[in-house]
Amino acid sequence: MVARPQAPQGRTARPTAAQKRIIDQWLQIPTDYAERNLGANFLHPLLNELGVPVNHRSNEVRISKPGESGLIPDLLIYQHLDEPPALAIELKRRIPLLFNTPEQDFATVCQNEPLKLYRRAVGYEETGENGIRQYLDPALVKPECLAPYGLVFNGDFFQLWRRVDGLVFPFTPIQKVTKANLPQLMQQIAYCLHKPPGAMVVSAWNQKGGVAKTTNTLNIGAVLALEGKRVLLIDLDPQNDLTHGLGLSPLPFPDYLASVSEKVQSRETEAAKAILDTAIQSKQFPTSDKRSYSLSLLSASRLALEAFRDHPNVKPVPIFMQLIELLKPDFDYILIDTSPTPDALTYSMLYACDAVLTPVDFGGKALRHGLHLHQSVLPEIRQRRSQRQPLHSGPWNLGLVYSNCPAEKMGKVLETAIAQEFKKYQFAGKLYETKLRSFAQVQAADFKQVPVICWQDSPVTKLYNDLVKEVFLSHNFMDG
């Protein structure tokens, strides 16, 4: 058994004896090396050094459900033999081109080199091959063979992927293996094998107001909770609309942010977690079809949020990221609501998120803000974050969803204008089929201070059910 690791933070630690042996092994591998040899003469020795027993590794097992085409990953790694695998691995051969590519160009070359080794390992559609994308698909894979993590590797490229329900997204950027970073890459594998997958952290955000960010956060969380997921909603908006939308108040816990900040800064993590547990409120909601679900909420008053944001001795972004890490083990999903203002609270959310869903309406302002977020803001934050900590290297783009739209369909003129805007920005991301339209039932739910999905026969409820299935529960692959 491997010692339970912390998330790797950088390349400063000296290699251990085991890591030095693997570095020496890697240095001996030819730059043109067959996939099978790479597995036998490097990957398996690496797993040996990580303490993974041989009987916890399964080679070339058919994992597809009955009736599906054959899915056979190169390797499945088990933490416990009576549970599904922890990690699925897809190997590809090593080639001199990738070995000789500088680190700064490496990800681009991986995406474009003529043999498409990286893209084949991932399983991009144009390659016609199965890869990690398919091996983590709940619709294709038997439940007992479905892993939460995947790895693509060829001796030079190394990338971990993560699955949450149907959603599959990068857990690290594409990394080039080097003598310097190989110990860190080993730690990343060990982390995936031993760290229980925590909550998926998501926000529905756009700098343009009026696109129902809070309403979406509330009802997406409610649908997930009704599906049996453990959901925490975090209200970082000083207006506290999310909190009031649940019929709750932030006032009972006005000082928890200050207390948690103090404990986090002094590295008293257990004390910080105890304070957070006290601050979390929970509420049960009945539905019209006689079911019920529970939502948890972490909220703070306007004064507490503004003090956290503006305190000269507090750095909100790193403190909030650590706060989220403390909460992840207790939930399946954490959904964060902030104001449209790009202030320190908003950046705390963006740096802590695994992914951001961008709501836009049929108007030009919301669409332009959404495309700018998608194309520029999130990739820049992801780049900065991955330099400090390659694991959890979000926020990834979940895509765009039409929200708060009129009930009638868009006309031809508007449809053409929107298409031109997408073309102008060279948008290559996801635009979801589900359109969240404006119905009076949403306002009625707001007055009653409950999620609209409490009315199960409402057309709005169907839209939110469809969206949650499309984004989270059905297979949804994202990489940008």
Automatic annotation (TrEMBL):
**Coiled coil, from the record:** none
**Domain of life per record:** Bacteria
Record domain AAA: where = 201-371
Q: What is this protein called?
A: AAA domain-containing protein
**What organism does the record attribute this protein to?**
Stenomitos frigidus ULC18
